[in-house]
From TrEMBL:
This is AAA family ATPase. Residues 5-225 form the AAA-ATPase-like domain. It comes from Thiothrix litoralis. It holds the Pfam family AAA-ATPase_like.
Length: 595
């Protein structure tokens, strides 16, 4: 049975206890060659802390005797570099530093963390350090200077590893987009964080530090530290390190096959499970080289596979709670002055979201641009892991897209919260959607959309066609990744359906659920030659008889008949499949027919 290291980032513990370790040590020579001071950015829960733990154990003089046990069967153990076990290791983890309080409180939190790490370092290496390390309770920068002097004067070299370098600064930035004062005080002028990195830079230039490896989520803080720390090499968009964190599909499939074998399940189950994992967890690319395969989020994969190994089925809830806080990143953007329009653009799958380049300067001086410039918002969403590089267009621009269904669900939930701010309306919407999944009767949903949604959606700053606006209203109301694999603009026989709701394989055991395809058409009031008031005052039967409405309805029904044949062949359950044509007449009324 595989022991998944879910939530564990201690390399030594993983290896000594026989847990699963996906070998990334073949990248170590390239990391060494990339530079002495490196910055590597990845979204949350992508394995950055485990990477640092791996490097710490590989380079630490303290673990030299354990090298064969820890690395012997790994790629780097078979061909180690000359630098293995040559350094004293100092690790800082800024995710442990609270961002609460004013500048003095944050500085105190940071200094306490640095001093505790320095104390641990002194205890660990006391046998080989010839000079004592003095810890200054009120001045961790002086403590750090004492440490580097001790290491150098004792004839050793230091490797500094910093995890989540931007964590508490990002928390300040995203918790209140208007709170520029605390952020400015941290990073500008002689701000404590900028001063800390100036000390690191000076120590490296004086050969007190030999190597530095920094991980984080975004380049926000780096932008404001440039003058204080302008010597680091950024490797986060380097194609050589695209898969340094994350799981390639071939590796994930091997794990699924191993679990299937343990349960005595047929190979057909591998295909089924991989298809679900692919739709929910795959899609991340961290470079412009499109020949590099996309990778899966490792935390989500371990969450799902651990559940499958125990229960012989994937979890009902595919979003692990560890990543639910990413919704806050989307909310941060959505609440900016033009953020709602950016979210709308992202959800429009018929249009690309191109960028000339990822913005990397998010400093204090650019905060206003972050709040008003879509390119800054899109870049920040990329670094947060809720957009990814999907393509490069004919002009060499990056095309960003939502990576998978788990992340799409976060966007849809944010849109629903903005559209239906009242809890009572959200509850009503949920009950209506759940009834629809079982009956395929769209009428109650239609009436709710007419009464609650259209007033909001018609006033939003959409840059879409009206048909897409209507589709988005229904998708927001009906989206449910607990029961369905939901696709907007899904390809069926080389044609695109507007909204495809296919029951997840592990949910097909519930007979009341329906497979559903919806095709949307839009008829403007001008084309209908009616005013909004006239449309509202006429019966559905009268509106359905309008020639322009009939033409739109027949076009949708014709498309659905083609889709039905293909889907019945694929899923072999025609009795569960319901195809619905939906025609919106302005933003006033909705008509529908079953195919």
């Amino acid at each position: 049975m595989i022991q998944f290291p879910y939530g564990i980032s201690d390399f030594q513990r993983i290896r000594s206890q026989g847990m699963l370790y996906l070998d990334r040590t073949a990248h170590i020579p390239a990391i060494e060659a990339a530079g002495d001071q490196l910055v590597f950015l990845r979204p949350r829960r992508f394995g950055k802390s485990l990477l640092l733990s791996t490097l710490a154990n590989y380079y630490d003089r303290h673990t030299a005797d354990e090298f064969p046990a820890l690395f012997g069967d790994l790629a780097i153990g078979k061909n180690p570099t000359a630098e293995h076990n040559q350094y004293l290791i100092l690790r800082w983890d800024f995710s442990k530093v609270s961002a609460q309080g004013d500048l003095a409180a944050i500085t105190g939190n940071l200094f306490r963390h640095l001093n505790e790490c320095i104390k641990g370092f002194a205890q660990k290496y006391q046998a080989i350090l010839q000079f004592p390390i003095t810890v200054y309770p009120e001045d961790a920068l002086a403590s750090f200077d004492s440490l580097t002097n001790s290491v150098k004067n004792s004839g050793h070299t230091l490797y500094l590893l910093i995890d989540e370098y931007d964590n508490f600064a990002n928390e300040i930035l995203t918790s209140d987009p208007h709170d520029r004062v605390r952020y400015h005080d941290l990073l500008e002028g002689e701000g404590v964080l900028k001063t800390l990195f100036k000390v690191i830079k000076a120590s490296a230039s004086e050969s007190k530090i030999s190597r530095v490896f920094i991980t984080g989520v975004s380049p926000v803080v780096l932008s404001d530290m440039t003058s204080g720390y302008n010597v680091a090499t950024s490797i986060y968009l380097d194609e050589d390190f695209n898969a340094l964190c994350g799981i390639p599909e071939v590796e994930l499939q091997g794990l699924v096959q191993q679990i299937m074998h343990g349960h005595g399940l047929a190979e057909t189950h591998v295909t089924e499970v991989m298809e679900t994992l692919r739709r929910f967890y795959n899609g991340y690319r961290f470079c412009k080289d499109l020949t590099q395969a996309t990778v899966y989020n490792p935390t989500l994969c371990f969450y799902a596979l651990r559940h499958y190994q125990k229960k012989a089925q994937l979890p009902d809830q595919m979003l692990d709670g560890n990543l639910a806080m990413d919704a806050g990143r989307i909310r941060y953007i959505a609440n900016l002055p033009v953020g709602a329009a950016v979210i709308d653009q992202i959800l429009d799958e018929t249009r690309t979201t191109p960028l000339r380049q990822l913005e990397t300067r998010f400093g204090v001086e650019q905060l206003q641009r972050v709040q008003h410039d879509p390119s800054y918002m899109l870049s920040l969403l990329y670094f947060f892991g809720v957009l990814t590089i999907a393509d490069v267009d004919g002009m060499g621009r990056l095309v960003l897209a939502i990576p998978n269904l788990v992340i799409r669900g976060l966007y849809v939930e944010q849109l629903k919260e903005q559209t239906l701010p009242r809890f009572e309306d959200q509850q009503t919407a949920q009950h209506l959607a759940e009834d629809f999944y079982q009956t395929a009767d769209l009428q109650p949903v239609v009436e709710f959309v007419e009464n609650k949604y259209f007033a909001v959606f018609s006033n939003r700053d959409y840059r879409w066609s009206n048909e897409l606006t209507v589709k988005t209203a229904f998708m927001t109301l009906l989206f449910n990744d607990l029961y369905y694999i939901m696709d907007s603009e899904a390809v069926i026989q080389r044609r695109y359906s507007d909204l495809l709701m296919i029951i997840r394989p592990n949910m097909r055991r519930f007979p009341l659920l329906k497979d559903i395809v919806l095709e949307f058409k839009y008829v403007s009031l001008a084309d209908a030659k009616l005013t909004a008031e006239q449309v509202r005052n006429q019966s559905r039967e009268t509106l359905a008889a309008l020639p322009v409405v009939q033409a739109a309805m027949q076009a949708a029904l014709t498309q659905l008949r083609d889709y039905r044949q293909a889907l019945e062949t694929k899923y072999q359950q025609p009795e569960r499949l319901h195809c619905l044509a939906v025609v919106a007449l302005g933003f006033e009324r909705v008509l529908w027919e079953a195919c």
